[in-house]
C-alpha cells in the first residue's frame, strides 16, 4: 500500500489570496476570468484520464496555486461571503434530475393497453354502423364507449403522474445528506447541495464524496470508485500519483480534506446521472398480485367467450322478438363489445394499482414518521418481519453521551457532569490525559447560532439554540466536552489537535475507530511531546501546549521534521477490557508510569464491571511514549504493524464511564414488538455486563433468555447456534461479521450455496470435514434444518462494516443521524431519528400496506364474481345484458381506480400489532376473506337475478331500459355499501371506524354516489339509463344497503385464520396453501348457485308454458 504521507512539502501551501470578499466576488463575476478558471478545472477533471489530469495539474503548480486560482485557503477554506457568487457563476451542487414524463406522454401510454385498444376499435365500428343505421341517435353507444375509455385513460394517467411525483419527492429526501466543510477557518455542517467550487470539504471513512476535488491533506485514505469505474477494488490516494477524488465514490478508510473543483452537473457523477433515469422495480407483493390478476383475467376471458357464444346462439337459433329487428352482424358486434367489456371488468388492473397507491401513500406518511424508504419492497416486507436485530447506542439509547465518572491517572472522580473545579492530578498527568482526548478523536464542533442583534432594545429576540453542535462520534464528543469543561480546565482541544498536524506532510498519523477493532490509535509527533513534560518544571499543561504551538508555527512547513529529533507518542482509545489487556503500566496522579501488577489489574477490571453493571459504557485511554525507538518508519507505518508492534506494553491513563440513557419510549416499543410476534435481539459492541443491564431495562432480555459474547458466538457450530437462536436475545462485544453471520443463519440471506462460495468465506479450510462445523453453514444444510423457509429479518446498522449484514437482511435499517453513507446505501430503510420506536412504526405501516391490499382484493373479487355472472346469466336467459358497455366501464372505474384509492389509503390501526406476522409463503386471501367474498357475492347475485326476473315489481317492461337501470343502480349501491364492509377483513364488524382519518375513502364514496345519480338521472341515451322515481331510488339503494347487515351476519360464521400462515413468536410449522383451489371454489360457488336458481326459474316457466299449451288443447 502506498503511503499517504510521503507527499511533496509544497503540496500544502497556504493558498491565501489576501483579497477582500468584494474583490474575490468581482473576479468571480468577471466572465473572462471565470471562463479561464472553469477551463482549467475541466482540464484536470477529465473522465478516465488520470495521467492527463495529473500532468495538467502539476504543470500549473501545486495545491497552493490551485487554491489561489479558486480564491480559497488550504487551512481556512473560502470566505463564506463569496459562496453565493461561486454558486451563481461556477455552479450549484444539485444533481441534474432525470427527465420525467409529462402528463400528455403518460396519457398516450395508457392506450398501449390491449383491452383499451380493442374497446376503441369496437367503439369505432359501433359508431360507424350506428350512424349508418340511425343517423339521428346511432352515434350514442359508440361515443359513450369512447368517452368511458377517455375517462379511464385520464384517471390512469393522473395516478401515474402523481405516483412519479411522490417517488421523486422520496428520492430527493433520500439524496439529502449533510457534509462538513471549512469556511472562514471554522467547521460547518451544510446540506450537500450548498457546496461550491473552492470549498474545503472534510471526509472520513464511510462518507460519500459529495463533489469532485483535489486532496489537500490525507491520512490513509482509500476510496471505493466502483460506482464510476466498475472495478471493485480499494483505490489508495496520494499526492504524487492520484490526489483526485470523484463524486459518487465513498471513503472506505482513512480521512482527508480536499478542494472542490467540480460540483453538480459538472462533476463526473453529475454527468453520468444526467443520462440516467431510475425505474422503480416491482415489489414481491406487486409481482404476486400481477400473477393473481393474470389468473383472474383468464377466467374473465373465458366468461367473455361463453357470453359471446351464448348471445350468438340465442340470436341464430332462438331469435326472440326483441332481437328480430337486428341483423346478425349488428348483434355480433353488440356481443363482441359486451365480451370485451367483460374482459375489461374481469382483468383486475386495479390490483397492482392498489399496491402502487398504497405504497406511495404509505412511504410519504412513513417519512413523517422518520422512516425514509429507499426500496419499496422494504415497506411491505417490514410488515411481516419476525426478527429485529437492533444496535444499542443511539437506537435503544438516546446517543446523548455524558461522562459521569471515571478513574483518571489512578484517581477516581464521581459526578463529573456537575464538577465545579478542575481535575485533582498533576499538570503532567493532566497534559497526557487531555492530549490523548484531543488527538485520539475525530469529532468536530460546529459553532452555535448567534442571535441577530435587534434593531431596538425592546424588540424580542427569536428563540435560538446557542448550544454547540457536535459532528461525529458521540462518545468522542462526550470526552471532548468534558475536557473543555471546568473539570478539564476549559482545555483548548482544537489547538491541541491542530498542533498535531494530522494529514500534513510529516505530520501525525491517525488510524480511526473501527467497529471491528473497537479501538482507535493516533501517532502524535511534535518538537515537544510527552517527554518534554519531564523537563517542564511542572508548568501548566496549557503553557506547554502553547509552547508547542509556538514551536510548530515558527517551523516552516516547507521544512521536514525528519532528522530534527522527532518525538512520537501513541495515544490509544477503545473498549476498556480490550485496551486493558494490552497495558503493562498505568499512569499515577503524578504523571509517572507504574507497573501494572495482578492486583492492580484486578482492581481496574472490577471498575470496568462496576460501570458495566450500572449500564455505563466504559472506555479506556492509554498511551505509549518514545515509539520512535521501536519503529523508525512511523511516517509510512500501516495498521497491521501498529497493532503488532506499538499497541502493546501501553500505559493505562484512564477508565471513563459514559452514560447513555435509554430512550423514553423504548420499553413500550419493545413490548409492542414482542406482542406482535417479533423476536427482538440486541447486537452491540459493548461489553456483556453493560449489554445485559441495558437489555434488561429495555425488556429485551427476558427470563430464560440468553446473552453471549461475540467470541463465544464464533465458536458455535451451525447446529449449536440453531439450538440457541430461539433464546438468544443479546449478543455483546460482537463484530460486524458476527452480526452478518447471525442474519445469514436466521434468513439464509447470502448463504454460501456451492463449495467455491464456502471456500471464499473460509479460505484454507477443508470443505468436506468442516462445512458442518463453521458458521454460517451452507445453503443445503440451512434449508434442510428449517424446511427452506427462513425468518424475515430486520437489521439496524450505522457503520461502514455493517454493510454486509444490512445487505443480507430482508430489511436493512440504517441510522439517519449516526449512520455512514456506506451503511445508508446498503440499507432499505433509513431511520431518520435513529429511534427504535420508529422501527415499530415501519412494522405498523408495512402491515397496513399488506392489509390494505387484502381489503381491496376482497372488494374486487366480490365485484368480479357478481358482474361476470350476472352478465353471463342474462345472456343465456335471452336478455340483453343488463349492464351495457358504458355501465360496465363505470363499474370497472369504481372497482379498480376508485376502490384502489379508497382502500389503498386507509391509515394503520394499532390493532395490526396485536397479531403475529405472516409467513413468506402465506396466501394473499385468508379463510375469513373467502367467507366474506362468498357470502357477499351470493347475496348480490341472488338480488340481481331476482330483479332480473321480477320487472313487474316496478311496473316496467321486461328487458327495457327502465328495468336494466334498476338492476344497475341496485348493483352499484351494493358495491358502495360493500366497500364499507371491505374495510375489515377479519371478524370485527366496525365499518365506520376511523372514518375521520380516511378522507380519501369518504371522497371516493361521495364521488361515486354523486356520479351514479348523474349517470342514472341524466345519462339518457348516452348511458342507456332512465331516471328513477323516488320510490325506486329508495328500493334500489335499500337493496344495496343490505350488504352492510350481511357483513355483520357473515362474520358470525366461525372461520379462523389458518395458524400455519403465521410466523414469529408463537408460530407453527407451515404448509403449502392451495390458494388456486380456493380461488376457483370462491368463483364457482356463487356462480353455480345462480345457475341452479336460473334453471329452476326456467323449469317453472316451461311448466307454465306446458300448462297453457294443455289448456289450449282442451279448448
UniProtKB/TrEMBL annotation:
Residue numbers spanned by region Disordered: 1-20
GO cellular component term, pick one: plasma membrane
Domain of life of the organism encoding this protein: Eukaryota
Entry's transmembrane regions: 114-132, 138-158, 296-317, 337-361, 861-879, 998-1015, 1035-1054, 1075-1096
Molecular function per GO: ATP binding; ATP hydrolysis activity; metal ion binding; P-type calcium transporter activity
Entry annotated with the keyword Nucleotide-binding: yes
Membrane topology: Multi-pass membrane protein
Subcellular location: Endomembrane system
InterPro entries, per the entry: ATPase_P-typ_cation-transptr_C, ATPase_P-typ_cation-transptr_N, ATPase_P-typ_cyto_dom_N, ATPase_P-typ_P_site, ATPase_P-typ_TM_dom_sf, ATPase_P-typ_transduc_dom_A_sf, ATPase_P-type_domA, HAD-like_sf
NCBIfam families named in the record: ATPase_P-type
Protein name: P-type Ca(2+) transporter
Organism (species): Seminavis robusta
Amino acid at each position: 500500500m502506498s503511503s499517504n504521507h510521503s507527499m511533496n512539502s509544497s503540496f500544502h501551501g497556504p493558498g491565501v489570496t489576501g483579497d477582500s470578499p468584494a474583490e474575490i466576488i468581482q473576479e468571480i463575476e468577471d466572465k473572462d476570468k471565470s471562463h479561464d478558471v472553469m477551463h482549467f478545472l475541466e482540464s484536470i477533471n477529465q473522465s478516465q484520464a488520470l495521467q492527463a489530469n495529473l500532468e495538467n495539474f502539476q504543470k500549473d503548480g501545486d495545491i497552493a496555486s490551485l487554491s489561489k486560482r479558486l480564491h480559497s485557503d488550504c487551512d481556512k477554506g473560502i470566505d463564506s461571503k463569496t459562496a453565493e457568487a461561486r454558486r451563481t457563476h461556477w455552479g450549484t451542487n444539485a444533481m441534474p434530475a432525470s427527465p420525467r414524463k409529462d402528463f400528455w406522454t403518460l396519457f398516450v401510454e395508457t392506450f398501449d393497453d390491449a383491452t383499451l385498444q380493442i374497446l376503441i376499435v369496437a367503439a369505432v365500428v359501433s359508431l360507424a354502423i350506428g350512424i349508418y343505421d340511425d343517423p339521428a341517435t346511432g352515434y350514442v353507444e359508440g361515443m359513450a364507449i369512447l368517452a368511458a375509455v377517455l375517462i379511464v385513460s385520464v384517471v390512469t394517467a393522473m395516478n401515474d403522474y402523481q405516483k412519479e411525483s411522490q417517488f421523486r419527492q422520496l428520492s430527493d429526501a433520500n439524496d439529502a445528506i449533510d457534509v462538513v466543510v471549512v469556511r472562514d477557518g471554522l467547521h460547518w455542517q451544510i446540506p450537500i447541495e450548498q457546496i461550491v467550487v473552492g470549498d474545503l470539504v472534510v471526509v472520513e471513512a464511510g462518507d460519500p464524496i459529495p463533489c469532485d476535488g483535489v486532496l489537500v491533506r490525507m491520512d490513509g485514505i482509500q476510496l471505493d470508485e466502483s460506482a464510476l469505474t466498475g472495478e471493485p477494488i480499494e483505490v489508495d490516494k496520494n499526492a504524487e500519483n492520484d490526489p483526485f477524488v470523484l463524486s459518487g465514490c465513498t471513503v472506505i478508510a482513512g480521512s482527508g480534506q480536499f478542494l472542490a473543483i467540480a460540483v453538480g452537473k459538472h462533476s463526473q457523477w453529475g454527468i453520468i446521472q444526467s443520462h440516467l433515469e431510475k425505474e422503480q422495480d416491482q415489489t414481491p407483493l406487486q409481482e404476486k398480485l400481477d400473477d393473481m390478476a393474470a389468473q383472474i383475467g383468464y377466467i374473465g376471458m373465458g366468461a367473455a367467450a361463453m357470453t359471446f357464444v351464448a348471445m350468438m346462439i340465442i340470436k341464430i337459433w332462438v331469435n326472440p322478438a326483441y332481437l328480430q329487428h337486428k341483423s346478425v352482424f349488428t348483434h355480433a358486434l353488440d356481443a363482441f363489445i359486451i365480451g370485451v367489456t367483460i374482459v375489461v371488468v374481469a382483468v383486475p388492473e386495479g390490483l397492482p394499482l392498489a399496491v402502487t397507491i398504497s405504497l406511495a401513500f404509505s412511504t410519504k406518511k412513513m417519512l413523517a414518521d422518520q422512516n425514509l424508504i429507499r426500496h419499496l419492497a422494504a415497506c411491505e416486507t417490514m410488515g411481516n418481519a419476525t426478527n429485529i436485530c437492533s444496535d444499542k447506542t443511539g437506537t435503544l439509547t438516546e446517543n446523548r453521551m455524558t461522562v459521569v465518572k471515571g478513574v483518571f491517572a489512578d484517581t477516581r472522580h464521581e459526578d463529573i457532569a456537575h464538577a465545579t473545579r478542575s481535575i485533582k492530578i498533576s499538570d503532567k498527568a493532566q497534559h497526557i490525559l487531555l492530549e490523548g482526548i484531543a488527538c485520539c478523536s475525530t469529532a468536530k464542533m460546529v459553532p452555535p447560532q448567534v442571535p441577530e442583534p435587534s434593531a431596538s432594545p425592546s424588540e424580542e429576540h427569536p428563540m435560538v439554540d446557542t448550544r454547540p453542535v457536535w459532528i461525529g462520534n458521540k462518545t468522542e464528543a462526550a470526552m471532548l466536552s468534558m475536557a473543555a469543561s471546568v473539570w478539564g480546565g476549559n482545555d483548548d482541544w482544537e489547538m491541541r489537535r491542530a498542533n498535531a498536524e494530522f494529514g500534513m506532510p510529516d505530520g501525525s498519523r491517525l488510524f480511526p475507530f473501527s467497529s471491528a477493532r473497537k479501538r482507535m490509535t493516533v501517532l502524535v509527533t511534535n518538537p515537544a511531546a510527552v517527554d518534554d513534560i519531564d523537563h517542564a518544571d511542572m508548568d501548566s499543561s496549557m503553557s506547554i501546549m502553547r509552547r508547542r504551538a509556538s514551536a510548530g508555527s515558527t517551523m516552516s512547513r516547507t521544512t521536514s521534521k525528519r532528522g530534527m529529533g522527532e518525538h512520537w507518542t501513541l495515544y490509544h482509545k477503545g473498549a476498556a477490557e480490550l485496551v486493558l489487556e494490552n497495558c503493562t503500566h498505568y499512569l499515577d496522579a503524578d504523571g509517572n508510569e507504574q507497573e501494572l501488577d495482578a492486583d492492580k489489574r484486578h482492581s481496574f477490571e472490577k471498575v470496568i464491571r462496576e460501570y458495566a453493571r450500572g449500564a455505563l459504557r466504559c472506555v479506556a485511554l492509554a498511551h505509549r511514549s518514545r515509539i520512535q525507538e521501536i519503529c523508525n518508519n512511523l511516517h509510512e507505518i500501516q495498521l497491521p504493524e501498529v497493532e503488532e508492534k506499538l499497541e502493546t506494553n501501553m500505559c493505562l491513563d484512564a477508565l471513563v464511564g459514559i452514560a447513555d440513557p435509554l430512550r423514553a419510549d423504548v420499553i413500550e416499543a419493545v413490548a409492542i414488538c414482542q406482542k406482535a410476534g417479533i423476536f427482538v435481539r440486541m447486537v452491540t459492541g459493548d461489553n456483556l455486563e453493560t449489554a445485559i443491564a441495558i437489555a434488561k431495562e429495555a425488556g429485551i432480555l427476558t427470563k430464560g433468555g440468553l446473552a453471549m459474547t461475540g467470541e463465544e458466538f464464533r465458536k458455535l457450530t451451525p447446529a449449536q447456534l440453531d439450538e440457541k437462536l430461539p433464546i438468544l436475545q443479546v449478543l455483546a462485544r460482537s463484530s460486524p461479521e458476527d452480526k452478518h453471520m447471525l442474519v445469514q443463519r436466521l434468513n439464509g440471506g447470502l448463504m454460501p450455496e456451492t463449495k467455491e462460495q464456502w471456500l471464499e468465506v473460509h479460505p484454507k479450510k477443508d470443505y468436506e470435514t468442516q462445512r458442518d462445523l463453521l458458521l454460517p453453514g451452507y445453503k443445503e444444510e440451512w434449508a434442510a434444518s428449517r424446511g427452506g423457509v427462513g425468518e424475515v429479518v430486520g437489521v439496524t446498522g450505522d457503520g461502514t462494516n455493517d454493510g454486509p449484514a444490512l445487505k443480507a437482511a430482508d430489511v436493512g435499517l440504517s441510522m439517519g443521524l449516526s449512520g455512514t453513507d456506506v451503511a445508508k446505501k446498503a440499507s432499505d430503510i433509513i431511520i431518520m431519528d435513529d429511534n427504535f420506536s420508529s422501527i415499530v412504526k415501519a412494522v405498523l405501516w408495512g402491515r397496513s400496506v399488506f392489509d390494505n391490499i387484502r381489503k381491496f382484493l376482497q372488494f374486487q373479487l366480490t365485484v368480479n364474481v357478481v358482474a361476470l355472472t350476472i352478465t353471463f346469466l342474462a345472456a343465456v336467459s335471452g336478455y340483453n345484458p343488463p349492464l351495457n358497455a358504458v355501465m360496465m366501464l363505470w363499474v370497472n372505474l369504481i372497482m379498480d381506480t376508485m376502490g384502489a384509492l379508497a382502500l389503498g389509503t386507509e391509515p394503520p390501526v394499532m390493532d395490526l400489532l396485536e397479531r403475529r406476522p405472516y409467513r413468506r409463503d402465506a396466501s394473499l386471501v385468508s379463510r375469513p376473506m373467502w367467507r366474506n367474498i362468498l357470502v357477499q357475492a351470493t347475496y348480490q347475485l341472488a338480488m340481481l337475478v331476482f330483479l332480473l326476473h321480477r320487472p313487474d315489481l316496478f311496473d316496467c317492461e321486461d328487458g327495457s331500459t327502465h328495468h336494466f337501470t334498476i338492476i344497475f343502480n341496485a348493483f352499484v349501491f351494493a358495491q358502495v355499501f360493500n366497500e364499507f364492509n371491505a374495510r375489515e377483513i377479519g371478524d370485527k364488524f366496525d365499518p365506520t371506524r376511523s372514518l375521520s382519518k380516511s378522507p380519501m375513502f369518504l371522497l371516493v364514496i361521495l364521488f361515486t354516489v354523486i356520479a351514479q345519480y348523474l349517470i342514472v338521472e341524466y345519462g339518457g341515451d348516452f348511458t342507456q339509463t332512465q331516471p328513477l322515481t323516488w320510490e325506486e331510488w329508495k328500493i334500489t339503494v335499500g337493496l344495496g344497503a343490505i350488504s352492510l347487515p350481511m357483513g355483520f351476519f357473515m362474520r358470525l360464521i366461525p372461520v379462523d385464520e389458518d395458524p400455519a400462515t403465521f410466523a414469529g413468536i408463537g408460530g407453527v410449522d407451515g404448509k403449502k396453501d392451495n390458494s388456486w383451489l380456493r380461488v376457483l371454489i370462491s368463483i364457482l360457488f356463487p356462480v353455480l348457485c345462480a345457475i341452479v336458481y336460473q334453471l329452476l326459474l326456467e323449469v317453472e316457466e316451461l311448466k307454465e308454458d306446458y300448462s297453457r299449451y294443455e289448456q289450449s288443447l282442451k279448448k
